[in-house]
Amino acid sequence: MRNIRYDGGHPAKRTFQAVRIAVNEEIANIEPAVDSVVRILNPGGRLVAISFHSIEDRVIKKAFVKFEKGCLCPADFPVCVCNNKPEAKVITRKPVYPGKEELAANSRSASAKMRVLEKL
Ligand SMILES: [Zn+2]
């Protein structure tokens, strides 16, 4: 049986998290950080991102998907002129959540979502 306190955490937790995210401009820094890491990865190298907020997860998901895109030409172009190639592939179609053991040992993992990207 889970302690009710751990389900949502302390009531002030979400407020402090929102203030921290805003003050540090954490959302705005996610995509440039992902871009920087993908640039320096070797082929086959993986970027593992763990987020603790749904907005962060959404930004990470979008930042990852961008690297999977090949051709960026308009759909009505008869042939590709952009020569854009996919740079990475997303390993995790859906985010990976903590398992029961992790949750039992580490209640703070409850809101964690993990996504993995592999450089091509
Ligand atoms: Zn193209």
The secondary-structure element order is HHHEHEHE
* CATH architecture annotation: 3-Layer(aba) Sandwich
Number of helices: 5
Strand residue percentage: 5-15%
The neighbouring-strand order within the major sheet is 1-3-2
The CATH homologous superfamily is termed: Vaccinia Virus protein VP39
The CATH first-level class comes to: Alpha Beta
Uncertain spans = none
How helical, in percent, are the residues?
40-55%
Described by the principal axes of the CA atoms, the overall outline is elongated
CATH-derived topology: Rossmann fold
Query: Main beta sheet, described?
Result: 3 strands, antiparallel
Bound molecules: zinc ion
Category from helices, strands and their pairing: alpha+beta
- The tally of structural domains comes to 1
Can you give a write-up of this model?
The protein is α+β, with helices and mostly antiparallel strands and 120 residues long. The protein has a single domain, classed as Vaccinia Virus protein VP39 (Rossmann fold). It is built from 5 helices and 3 strands; from the N terminus they run αααβαβαβ. A 3-stranded antiparallel beta sheet has the order 1-3-2, covered by helices on one side. α3 packs parallel to α4. The longest helix has 15 residues. The chain is elongated and about 55 Å long. The mean pLDDT is 90. Bound molecules: zinc ion (ZN). Zinc ion binds next to loops.
